[in-house]
Design goal:
The chain is an alpha/beta fold. The strands form three sheets. Strands 2, 3, 4, 7, 8 and 9 form a six-stranded parallel β-sheet that branches. It is globular, with a radius of gyration of 18 Å. α2 links the parallel β2 and β3. It has a single domain, classed as TIM Barrel.
Length: about 250
Amino acid sequence: MKKVLVFLALLLIAGCFNKNIAPVAPGPNQPMVAKTPIYSVARDDNKIAISFDAAWGSEYTRRILDILDEYNIKTTFFVVKFWVEDNPEVAREIVNRGHELGNHSATHPEMGNLPLEAIEREIMSTHETIKDVTGFEANLFRPPFGHYSPPMLSVIAELGYYAIQWDVDSLDWKERGAEDIVLRVSEKVQPGSIVLFHNNAKYIADALPLVLENFKERNLEVVPVSQLIWHSDYIIDHEGRQHRANRDN
């Protein structure tokens, strides 16, 4: 009972703390406060999204961009503040080539363990850095390590952000080789999936063309995360799968 009361108190604090925070991406569609982030999306078409987390290094990033150009694919790069500061030209090139940037925090902490004020600082300082360096206005947030808490989800929704996870993990950071990445992703991906890659994984440039060929053979259409998710009238089930609440809209 004590844990329940503490949890409810945290939610109340989150609501009070964020009451005066202006959304960073105002518009007709405002993210809803949910119990989980979005891991995948229920869709009637064959759309999927691939995403690249960028925190350390940029050695393979331009090769990734070249491959995506070859396949005429646009996607989402979730960037950490210090990565943007260390690689401003690469960050601008990502945007200039037609891809979108997502917010991946300022210092890459376990976000769910942070006080509410620190959560806001992590998100907003990164938001401003992305905007200052590239001109891009981010509204997708991926918590480092996939770590989150209900109060954190409340804060980011009030800031105008959608919380994005993944349902297909390439595990490219384990450096098991390109074939392992291709097999793992191709076996698990399905319409509505969000795939996690890393921009500086050792074998990502070798694996990516093979992955995209597999998608092409299966008529899976790769789109940026923002074009995969529903922005209004949605629900998120207990597995983190996003559904349209009103199918008429």
